[in-house]
Amino acid sequence: MGTISELLLDMLEHESKQTRFVLAAAKHVDTKFTPKEGLRSLIDLANHIAQIPLIDQKFYSMEFKNFEEVQAMEKELRKDSIDELLIVYDQGIETIKKFISELSDEQLLENNLKVILSLFYQKDPEKSWGNYIPEITTHLAMHKMQLWMYLKLSGAPVNMWTYYGFQQDE
Cβ distance 157 to 143 under 8 Å? Predict the structure, then answer.
């Protein structure tokens, strides 16, 4: 089977490649597109997706002391083009992959993490990276679908092949 970190990394890498493919498909779409009033623009959603790997890793590592620090990092990482966002995304994925690969199985399973939400709103028990790495992966998956729907609604030529990260021959 391999180590727990190899298993979690495999899962994260699989989803992150698909998410990157959908993010790259947004290059030729109007980034100001908003499917409905009150929803975020495509560029705002793309920024959120590109920032997930780095922000979530820091969030679950308890590197942020408050939500203002999270917002400051989001502002610092914000970009105006999909090409720039792909760089942010790739750097974030490499950072989290390196972080995970350096953890032992024992460290991955140790319940020693309490996230900001728990500090302010809930009294949840501490959890492990073994719990939060799948959370990061599903966070990517959820917003990948949201971005794919934005692209579809904007009239972009996307289909399920795009969603699953397969290049179609023209």
Answer: no
Q: How far apart are CA 23 and CA 19, in angstroms?
A: 6
Q: Report pTM.
A: 0.90
| Residues 6 or more apart in contact with residue 98 via CB below 8 angstroms | none
Q: Measure the CA–CA gap between 20 and 103, rounded to whole angstroms.
A: 25
Residue pLDDT, tens place only, 53-62: 999 999 888 8
When the pLDDT of each residue in the chain is averaged and rounded to a whole number, the result is: 90
- List, in order of start, the domains of the chain with CATH numbers: 4-163 (1.20.120.450)
113-149 core/surface letters (b: 16 or more CB in 10 A; e: else): bbbbeeeeeeeeeebbbbebbeebbebbeebbebbbe
The β-bridge partners of 113 are: 127
Element (H, E) at 93: helix 82-101
Q: What tokens does 36 get?
A: 């409905």
